[in-house]
Amino acid sequence: MREFLFMQATRAIPVADPGLKSKELFLYWLSLSETQYFLRNELGKMCPNVPRTAIEPLHDSENSFRALTRAVSPPPSLSKSPRSSKGLTGISPKRRNSSRLNHSTSDKSGGDQASLERSRAADTLQDVPRFYYPNGKKDASENHQHTLRAAASVFQAKPGGQLNLEDFPALMKACKLPVYWKSPLFNLCRGMNGTVDLTGFKKTWNRVVQGCHDAASRFVYIMTKGKRRYLVEEDFADLIQDVISTHSGLACLTAAPEFHSRYIETVTARIFYTVSKSWNFKISISELRKSNLLEVLSELDKEEDINQELDYFSYEHFYVIYCKFWDLDTDHDCIIDASDLARHSDNALLPTIVKQLMSGVVTRRQGPANGVMSYKDFVWFLLSEEDKTTSRSVEYWFRCMDIDGDGILSLYELKYFYDEMVNKMDALGIESLPIEDYMCQLLDMVHPKEEGTGSQNSVGS
Description:
- By secondary structure, the chain is mainly alpha-helical.
- It has 26 helices and six strands.
- The strands form three sheets. The protein has a two-stranded antiparallel ribbon. The chain has a two-stranded antiparallel sheet with strand order 3-4. Strands 5-6 form a two-stranded antiparallel sheet.
- Helix 2 runs antiparallel to helix 4 (59-71), helix 3 runs parallel beside helix 8 and helix 22 crosses helix 23.
- It starts with a helix and ends with a helix.
C-alpha cells in the first residue's frame, strides 16, 4: 500500500525537472489524503490509547510542500515546456481536494473502526488487576493512628517525653514491631541531643508507612534511612551489635568485646549467603520477602537459647567457624593464603580448586587482593563445604569447577579435575576407577540437555 501511494506521488511530479528535491517529493506524498488515511490507520493500530486528535491529518505538511515548491523555481527551459506545465497541473490543489472528497467516507469508517479498537483495548487493560507491588500491598485493616496513640502513651510515661535506646523495647512492643528493629529505628528517629521525642517519632513513622506497606519494605527503609532500596553488609552492624549487647544467650560474648567484630562478620556473611541470590552482596526487598530473616528477627527475643536459632545467630556455629579459620590462619592476620587453605580438612582440596577459590572468581568480592581469602569469604567457603545440598552451595562449587567461566561444565573440565584427583589417590595408595565409569554415572544422574556437558541448572536439579 505504501509503495502504491508513493508511486502515485512520483507520477504527479515531472521527472524532467531537476530542481525538485527528495524532500519536496516526500512532503507532497505526505500531503496526499490517501497517505494520511493510511498513516492514521497504522498509528491507530500501534497506539490504541492515543487520542484521535493526536493523529489527525497533517495539513501543515501540505502547506510546507507549497512553500518549498514556490521557493525552488525550475530552470527557464523547463518552465516554458508544455510537458512541464502539464505535469505541474497534475499536482494542483483542485486535484487534491477532489481526492480528499472521494475518500471522506472511507476516512470516517476507518476512524470509527480505530476508535472502536482503542475502546476495546482500554476495556481490556481495565480488566487486568494490578499484580506488582514493589513496596507491598496496602492493608486496609492497619490503623496507623492507633499505633501512634500507643506510641504516645510510651513517651508520656517517660519524664520529659524523651526515649533512649534502652527505652525502645517498650515502644516496639506498643507499636507491634519486632524488638530487634529498635536499634536501626532509633538511629533513624534520633535527634541532635541523642534521644527521640514523640514529634520526631511521628514524623519518621508517617514517612515510613506512607510509602512502605509491608514488613520487608519498611525494614529496608529503616535500615538504610530511606537512602536505598536494597541492603548492604554495613547496614547490619548496629542491629547485630544490639543483639550482642541485649540477648541473654550471648552473655559470654558480651563480656569479650574483642570477638564482637568477628561475630558481626559471621552473622552478616551468613545472612548474605542465604538471602542474597544475585552474588552482588546486596539484598533487595523481593529477596528479603522470600527469605526467613524477618521471621527469625521477630522471634529472636523470645528464644532464650540463641543456639536454637540455626540459620544466622547461633553462637556455637560462630565458634566452630572462627576456630577453623584461626587454625588455618597461622600468622593470625585474619587473611589466609593458598598454602593455608590447602591444609583444610587434611589437604583434601585439589590444587585447582584452591587456585580458583583464591582467584576471586567464585564470590567476586571486592576486598583483599587476589591470592588471599578474607574471613567473610572463608565463612561462605565453609558453609558450602559443610552442606552441599543447598542451591547456593551447588552454585558455589559449580563456579569453582567452571574454569573457563562459560556456565557449562564440559568433559574437558571434568577430566581436568579427574586427573588431579587420580594423582592424589595414587599418592595415598587408593585405587581409582576409569574416567569412563565416572562419566557414565555422572551423566546418568544429571541427564544434561546437551550431550557431554552439564549446566548449573542440570547439576542443581
